[in-house]
Amino acid sequence: MIGAGEYFDAGLGVSFYQRTGPSVYADFVNFDGAEIFQDFRLRVVPLTATVRVLPFGREAAVQPYFGVGVGLFDWRYSEVGEFIDDTFDIFRDRFTASGTDVGGLMLGGLRVPIGDRFSAGIEVRHQSAIGRVGIDQGFLNERIDLGGIATQFTFEVGF
Known about the structure:
Layout: E1 2-3, E2 8-14, E3 17-29, E4 35-53, E5 63-84, E6 90-114, E7 118-128, E8 130-132, E9 143-145, E10 148-157
Antiparallel strand pairs: 1-2, 2-4, 3-4, 4-5, 5-6, 6-7, 7-10, 8-9
C-alpha cells in the first residue's frame, strides 16, 4: 500500500486460494453398489490493484476504509474421479481447465495504527470474475465462477 494523500491508499496485492470439494452422485451407484465419487478442485491466484478511501483520514485512532479494484485471476480447475456418460456407463477420468481472467473487487475494512510504523486490522473482500472451462473439454458448464467473499486479518509495516 502507498499513501496517496490524507484520505487515499493505493496498492498491489497477490493472494492464493485452493480448495478441493468431494462429490457423490445422488441417484446412482456403481455396479458393485459402491457410491460414485469425484473431487472438484479450484486454485485461484489473484493479482490485484486497489484504491482505498479512508473517510476519517490516516491520522484517526481507528481507520475504517472502503475501496475498489481490479484483478487478474490466474486459475486452474479440475474434476477427478468416476463419471457417468450418456449411456449410463461409469468411467474414471480427469478433466482440467486453466486460464487467466480479469475481474473486479470491492473491499471494506478497519485498521488500527500501532505506533508510527505498524497497523493491524480486518478486511472483507468481494471478488467477481468468470473463467471459461468449455463444454468441449468434458465439463457440464461453459463457465466457472471465480469470485466470492474473503475475510482476512491484516498487518501492515510502514517504510
